Protein 1
Amino acid sequence: MKEKTRSKEDTIEALHAVAAEMHDRMMRGEPPRMTLPVRSKKNINFDERLNVYKYGKKKTIRDATSLGSAHQLLRALFVTEFMEEMIEGQKSSTLREMYYISEGWGYGKFGSQNESNNLAEDLEIVTGCLREDFKLRPEEDGARIIGNLTFEERNRRGEWMRINCRDDVGDSGYGVPYNVESEKLRLLGHDIDFMMAIETGGMFDRLVENGFDESARCGLIHLKGQPARSTRRIMKRINEEWGLPIVVFTDCDPWSFRIFASIAYGAIKTAHISEYLATPSAIYLGIDSDDIKAYDLPADELTSRDIEALKAEKSDPRFQNQEWTDQIDLMLELGEKAEQQSLAKYGLDFVTDTYLPEKLRQKLGIHIG
Amino acid sequence: MVVEMDKAQRIANKQKQISISEFFEKNKHFLGFDTHQRAIITAVKEAVDNSLDACEEARILPEIHVYIKRIEGGKLELITQDNGPGIPRDSIANVFGKFLLGSRFHAIRQTRGQQGIGITGVVMYSQLTTGSSTTVLSKIEAESTAVKVDLALDTKNNRALKSNEERIPIEEWFEESGMQTLHGLRIKTVMSAKYQRGRQSVHQYLRMTSIVNPHATIRLKVIGKEGETVDEGEWVRSTSKLPRPVVEIKPHPHGMQFGTLQRMLKNTKERTVKSFLRKEFEKVSPLVAKKILEHAELDEKRRPAGLPVESIQSLLAAFMEVKIQSPPVDCLSPIEDLLIKKGLEKAIDSRYAATVTRNPSVSQGNPFQVEVGLVFGGDLPSDGTVELLRFANRVPLMYQQGGCLLTKGVESIDWRRYGLEQPGGKGVPKGPAAILVHLASTNVQFTSEAKEAVSDNEEVFDELRRALFEVGRGLQSHRKRIGQREKSREKFDLINKILPEIASKSSSMLGREPPDLSPIITKIMNAVFCEEEVIWEARDKLAKCSIKIYNYTARARAYTIIAKWPESDSTSIVQNERGGRKEARGLWAWRLDAIDPGSMTSIDFAVSGLNKGDWKEAEVFYRGNGEVIGSEKIDETLLEEARKQERLQEVVDEFIVPDVSTSFHQKDGVPLDSNVVSSEIWEAGDKLF
């Protein structure tokens, strides 16, 4: 995202423009307001040029005629003030810290961390800046990588450190930092054929223990559920800079479908920066709905929440293609879901000896062993 | 119960060997001693009901203490102590040793005792299950010492056996009773019983009793075997107004049943059926008696005792054909709505209380009266079903809720429209509320001898529904007021706190001049708001009301503001600098000058003669153009109607001479029935809007 990051002055100016919109309106005797794109699945469109989903033209006006919106405007001003201080003082804070700092903001106090995270995103969208420009960072990035990949990361002392994700790390792998832009992380070299993203920690550890990274000549990355921005960004860079395919291996449930969509097409919450985070060529490896029958996997019944989620996905523009419609309909029809680890029914090696080789052959034409 | 004991007596007379203890043993399910859990509740109930009845008759404000101790062998020791009149030494054996037989046979009045076997049952149960005697300690005011005696029952002869009788000096009485009272009664007994907590417990029984007896102070302490506290409760009196003394009346012909009539005919001292009808029934004048006998084709000189069955039946039929005045209703003792409110507030912490006492009416010759109370909000749990508190003649009904007419009445209302949850619009509603239902009647009809569920009766049901509708409407308008108040408070926060901060922050951040907020405020609010607050000032014993009118529109507005206040003979408006005038009973009006855009006018006044909690929110109405949020436009036609009724009432009042019963209240230092008057007017006011 190097290309996009702004200078100190530009960022402050962009933030001031938000305050100026409010002030101008008040000088005209009108209630202050903020204009934002609608951030829901109703307002994401496929961008032909970028090959990802971006926010559409629908705008929402947040004006001070209701108490809730007035709170939001005041919070935006408090957050702006706070960011200015950090930019000037060359400090940074986590989103969580900002949430706690807001305790002292009186009526500008956040009710929950979700509110403060959302407002940080709102400001990104209206200013066109990134939260890195605001000196805000996420609480934790999460992702771990294992495999024969070599990065160079600039450490706290400003020195570049060479790290091979197979030889220089322990069993937990290489921890992806929250900033993975080229000023912090360089992609040096690799000897693998593809990257595999894995939803659950249990499955990641299983593949590591079975030495799947070496036997299948791949890099393994643990998503930790819905992947953080830096996780998606590093996959995007690996895909673009090294030309390596990304395959995604998840549970078989409606939430896993959403994880894949955020990797491949862009997430609804971060659709303003989809072009930096999404990997359109990513491939969903499994577990597919028909695998439940094909492999006779132990399955759980869909809950009412699952069914609601599936129905919502049917009207989500990102799932409007034959393949996904079929997947969703099939899952609704079967009324069942399955976990990655249900493959252990056939023994601990089944996933690496049988399931994954079969799926890779079927979906990527990659032959292992 | 009386009837059953009579039956027992008859059985006993026929077969001498059947003892009363056998009768007790056979019938303990409806005497309330069928389970160990229930036995202790029944025992407490008999003792407490006696105490309350005795205090009421002696015009004493009751203080009742209940101690229960768990002892070895699955037994409980029960001590009840009251400050009632006490029992003279020579009457003790009678009160505790004889079952209630016939003493109140013909008298019809509303008493608690109607519903129990009496304290003798407790003595009997104790003796049957543990072989122990019951100790009674009684102090009457006329004597300087108390009397202490152990009682056992001679079940064959239906009388008490006294032992260990002694006189107790006053100091010892003070110490043992734990009360500085010159009169009172202490009962100590041991029985096979089990103390349990929950919806059917002594605690719940006393809590419910305290609700319908706001003039009583009741304390409970339950101690375990190790001396640990198992349960406790304290309900302090919230009024010093005693219930109205009940008057005994004779039966009314419309309520007669064959058996009762037959017995009355047999027992009467009157020599002719005509004088029998005139003397032993309510509302039977010589003319009415004549008509009845004509219808029944009976000679008026016939002797009552010798009437054949067919004649009794034709007499019964004639009762229904002849027009007879309804029985008097002053024999009832309703709790009265203001006192229900106090009782509920004593036991349940809530935000809102509404109560309705319906006027007495008559069903099948029996006067009855329905009262309903509803509390809402505060600490009441919002997830479960509403607590239903059922009472018959001030006695809590704790069992058989489902089969009770009072429950059916509550279930038949669609509470959803009043803001309570109720799946399907039927059944006991859910939400943070409690509903009290009280049926006062000279003859409460129960579904069974257990006397825990009121049986179906269309008239009672209809009255009950009317009362419930009324409290429901009250709840609805309370919730509406709360909603409006919340909404306007939000708006006030917005313009008074948040908007100024947005203005100052944005201007200082940008280094620009601060904007003028008044046009923005007008745009955001674009309405006139009314805020009302009533606070209790303990120092001056005043309820202070403040009404503020904010004009946030673009032009000047003028209104007349009308506030509803608890007007009665004992209350008055004070500290009312704006003056204004009386609009109608309970309604005071102020005509305000035009309020400029962006400005506020306030009305402040206080009401004296109230107690804390009597008045918590003032309803505010307005007259004028344009809506006032937080207040309602007054309905002029209804207002005119109310004024007319009032003038009529004034004329009526002039002709009414205070009767004897009012002197009773004056003696107690309580203004004569002022609460009743005000509550009726209050009720009339409610119907207005």
Note: The mean pLDDT of chain A is 90.
Protein 2
Amino acid sequence: MRAPADTAGTPATSRTGLALRRTGLLLLLIALWWAASLATAPYVLPSPDRVAQRLVTLAASGDLVANLLTTLSRVLAGFALAVVIGVPGGILLGSNRTLGAFFEPVLPVMNTVSSAIWAIFAIIWFGLSPLTPIFVVLMTALPLIITNVWQGTQAVNADYVELAQTLRFSRLKTLLKIYVPSILPYFFSGARLAFGFGWRVSLVAETLGASSGVGYRLRQASDLIQTDQVFAWTIAQIAMMVVIEIGLLAPLERHLFRWRRDVRS
Amino acid sequence: MDATPHATPTTSSHAPPDHRHALAFRHVGKRFGRADGTSLEVLRDVSFDVPAGSVVSILGPSGSGKSTLLNMAAGLLTPDEGRVLVLGHETSGTVDWSRLGYMFQDDRLLPWRSALGNVALALEAGSIGSRERRSRAEHELARVGLTDFAGAYPHQLSGGMRSRVALARSLVTEPDILLMDEPFSRLDAQTRTTMHHELLRIHRERAMSIVFVTHDVEEAVILADHIVMLSPRPGRVHAETTVTLPHPRLGTPQAQALVADLRAAIAGLSSDWVI
């Protein structure tokens, strides 16, 4: 009745197979990169070993970790603000039809505004400060979170609300025990999207309007034509996102939605 | 709550609360407004009692207002005319709603909660501590024979098991009145029979009244001490029958004869019988 037993033998072997395939892909890409770098100047395409050396020196100086953490903290701050505003906003718009219909056009319009435009506004308003990337992340993440939470409120099953009524739940208890768990999957997919977008646009904002962070260092390295540094920062930020995805978001999702049929298999 | 009839404001009624009756419907009428501005009369002048400790079946075709009566007893709807009394108290006044349990047509289990979590849900309206909630829910699950499935999620359970979890959820508050809205209608015949046995066993073990809504004549005869038959819309009490046959009744000649009688009575209504 519980875990299906017929697939018990396969996951371990398929997981090893997947790891082998992924390693193979990575080695292939590095080999292609290395071959291409032989035919080009280092400032156009630096070789993998040169970039690796640069990564080691950046890590040894503490520069790498400091800037990654700076950018991450800004993404998290903008993301947290988007959650704090977006979750109640989405619930409000979803539970009040008049309000929802009135504000509906705002979200797609917000989504069409390029992050570069938000960054320029932010520079005008906040100058070269940490607030600039935070604002850009907020403006990018907010419509995504509001839209998903809004959709989530509309997907709440009226039968469960009726059940809460027969159990004489207060409004607060109905919200916490029926609405929140119903909305959570929608919120989670919205938040994940918003976090990924937020990370990308934060780099844009930092290249334009910050004096620290990965985006700033990328811009600096490109201005000085230190292409190996540009590659090093790029690889570092990709690695960080992969670690967050595999180490945090995927297990969290598996845990939160373990009750779902599809997630278990 | 203690039986303190004078504690409740019964200013509009002269009759003192009557505790022999778990539920009493007095000249109940109900209309629903429709989108085009007209209204639909679903119940007209319905009066009957649910004696304390009895199983009463409300039998009627679809659209006869059976579920509406149940929702009035649960305090989810108010009658337009007449009164509904729960344990002697008007539903418009102060009723201790925790003394009622409700079981829906579907099992209505929350998919994100385990079987145990679904049963414990019914205890979460008040201020009962989480440890007591858990132990009471475990106890109730054991009584329906599902101890081994406490941690299973609804999608991992069979229809019969889900129905048992829903039953345990409606019983965990130890209600005096259990309202059931065609709760087994979606189960296969064999599982339904098992659930009938289970329900009658539970009823023997507890001092509890059951109101069981159904459109299935045989189900009413198998379960009920008293059958209230409603006419098609607007629902009125067409006939009332007291069943004194010993349990189990399924397949006995007397029960079959009664089923035939009731079906004949329904056939007399057939000109305006709405399915």
Note: The domain at 18-108+176-270 of chain B is CATH 3.40.50.300 (Rossmann fold).
